[in-house]
Fold:
Amino acid sequence: MRRIALAVTCLLTVWAAGAAAQVQSTEPVERGRTATIADSFCAGMITNQEVPYDLYVISGKEGDPETVWSLGQYIYLNKGSADGVKVGDDFMVLRPVTDFLHVQFFDQEHALANSMGKQWADIGHVRVVVVEPKTSIAQITYSCTYMQRGDYVRPLVDYPNPPFKPLKDLDRFAPPSGKSTGRVVRAKEYLAAQDRGQVVYVNLTGAKVGDYIRFYRPTARKDSAIYQIGGMSDHVWGFGQTPVHYAPEDIPREVLGEGVVLRTTPTSASVLIFNELLEIYLGDYVEIE
Structure:
């Protein structure tokens, strides 16, 4: 009998812990007051504009056998004094990225992603320390990830660190703002599920750095995303139905969280999630607050 009681007690304890975790997961936790340098310098972007490839990484110190370089190490650039490069010049390093194993999360995903352009990862910053006629040597002063041969090198852009909204101002039942809307189309490192502190790329045009973004999820009309079952607005077989029909647009939407725009391109905005009520997926909707 004692064994049975002990087993029941353990099960109830586990159940209570799970229930408590579920409740806690819907309560946001404040993530500082502003975006960090790492948030802004390493956000990445999607753009349909061509990124010039006239300056790039040739190799680096101890290039045989080294294949990658990181903070504090030295890399070699393909331009020197003959091209106007000077000691003390600062540059940022970029790399186009693709995901060969990506699974489509929502029905319009590939079409929207293709219309937005190519995805770029921020690799880090370098400063020129030695200049030769046709090449130069630069030290890595900031690393988002490792640098490698062929990485793009561009003039440094000093991206701002926009502030967050206070947690107390988060409205989990916020009505539509009536401003520009879009969708979460891609994410940094091609993650499909996002939470606080991560960066997503949305197809919002007209947004500005520092704009606040609300993430939301309407009730699905059809099976258009792998994480939603369409047609559940007013009935679920075996679990009840309403006496009259309610269309998905008649049901209050689910507010998921908030973000701030870190940078923009002609086709997209890079948004940092700073408040999160529920996990955010590719295909979820966004609006400017």
User: Anything to note?
Assistant: The two ends are 59 Å apart (CA to CA). Residues 1-25 have pLDDT under 50 and may be disordered. The chain has two domains: 47-155, 165-288.
